[in-house]
Amino acid sequence: MKKTILPFSIFAVMSLSAVAQSNRLFAITGDAQGSVQWNAIREVNFADGKAQKTIYAPSTKQPFKYLSVFNTPLNAKVIDKEPTYTNVAATAYDATNNRLYFANMQGSELRYVDLTQPELTVVTNDDANFSIKNKVAGEGSVITRMTFGVDGYGYALTNDGEHLMRFTTGNNPIIEDLGALVEGKVAADHSFKNQCSGWGGDLVGAVNGDLYLFTVRGNVFKINVANKVTDFVGQVKGLPADFTINGAAATEDGHLLVGGSNYTKSYFKINIETLQTIAPVTTPNGVYNASDLASANLLFQSKLTDNSRLINSSNIKIFPNPVVNKRISATFNNLVSGDYVVAIESVSGKLVSKNKLSVVRGQTLNIALPQVNNGVYYLKVIGSNQQAIAVQKLVVE
After folding, report:
1. Which of 67, 98, 200, 273 gives 20 to 30 Å between its CA and that of 316?
2. For residue 32, how many other CB atoms are within 10 A of its CB?
3. How far apart, in whole angstroms, are the C-alpha atoms of residue 112 and residue 126?
4. Upper half-sphere CA count for residue 353 (Cβ side, 13 Å)
5. CA atoms within 13 A on the CB side of 129
6. What is the mean pLDDT of residues 158-181?
7. Which residues contact 16 (CB under 8 A, 6 or more apart)?
8. What CATH number is given for 25-303 in this structure?
């Protein structure tokens, strides 16, 4: 069968992170409800906050194994300790690879649990860029916030905002220390540098490419990743006086769910547009108090940004998917031979590229993608009536 090379001209690029498995929510908790030893990892329910799966807890004595991300020998001191040995306050979910990343509070490694494995498998990355040498000496350099951005990168932030780290998830992972956040618009007594009101909390990615910092006292800051300028947005309203925001995760409709480190009554859902608390999320027995929360969702996203957009996806087969080396082979099945438009769109519906081509039923096209950032896109086949007749998800790694 003849194969055609089709170069794609990119008119505009909007990079995106994976929003697959958007109904999954993860929490770093204590071994028991109410404990403040943050050494357990659980999957919980978005609807009521109920723990539905324990991924790791010291009391279970479950077997686990360590691997190195670089396939190099592991330090004996590392493999002699439990995965969460100095407690965890930062975690982020990578839905593309089904991994839960985390960092020990006094550790010097970026780690992830490989959720595709039946046995608990913890993969470690000891890249020196992730090591802040004075973690043990003070709380400022402890990593307490982590998330994935719309660009597909993972981000981690120290308490004092002096180190914003960015990491990749491919076969040759890279960790960069982007440096200190830059203070932008600040209201009185609302600086991310203020230890009382600006430390702790969590990071959450947004569909516009920014990161949002939710501090332990409910202050909200928007971080421009390109220049690290950090603007004060406002303060979360309507939370109980004894509640602190320690974990935050975007919900399926683009709002926010927050959990507290000492609060076992409930989590809370927050309207991200108004920063007003909407409702408690709880069970009759309360919830596990959490040092951090993580999901694959993005702030301000719509429920219509994932599988509900797929149309007759069996009419086009993309391989490999996830994409590696920016090349795919697309086979057009069950389509009447003729002229079509093939477009690539962001999850927000913004056009990334568009090309006209003639397709023969069953034809396979080799498509060379440009240097787009990692993320999720939709490849759309448009017929002569200007209507999409096939839409397939495209994950670029």
Report:
1. 98
2. 11
3. 12
4. 20
5. 15
6. 92
7. 150, 151, 152, 207, 346, 347, 375, 376, 377
8. 2.120.10
Q: How many other β-carbons are positioned within 10 Å of the β-carbon of residue 355? A: 14
CA–CA separation, 396 and 151 (whole Å) = 10
Tokens of 121: 């498998």
Q: Which amino acid is at 33?
A: Q
Please give the Cα distance from 102 to 278 (Å, whole number): 29
The helix (run of H) or strand (run of E) holding residue 185 is none
Q: What pLDDT is attached to residue 5?
A: 42
Does the domain at 3-15+306-396 match CATH 2.10.10.70? Answer given as no
User: pLDDT: is 319 or 103 the higher one?
Assistant: 103
Q: Is the pLDDT of residue 364 over 60?
A: yes
**Distance, C-alpha 87 to centroid of its chain:** 21
Domain ranges of the chain: 3-15+306-396, 25-303
Whole-model pTM: value is 0.75
Structure tokens at 364: 């396979």
**35 has which bridge partners?**
none
370 prior amide bond cis, ω within 30: no
DSSP result, 230-299: EEEEEE-BS--TT----EEEE-TTS-EEEE-SS--S-EEEEETTTTEEEEEE--TT----EEEEEES--B
In angstroms, the CA 328 to CA 372 distance is 13
**Quick one: the chain helix, strand, coil %, rounded to 5?**
5, 45, 50
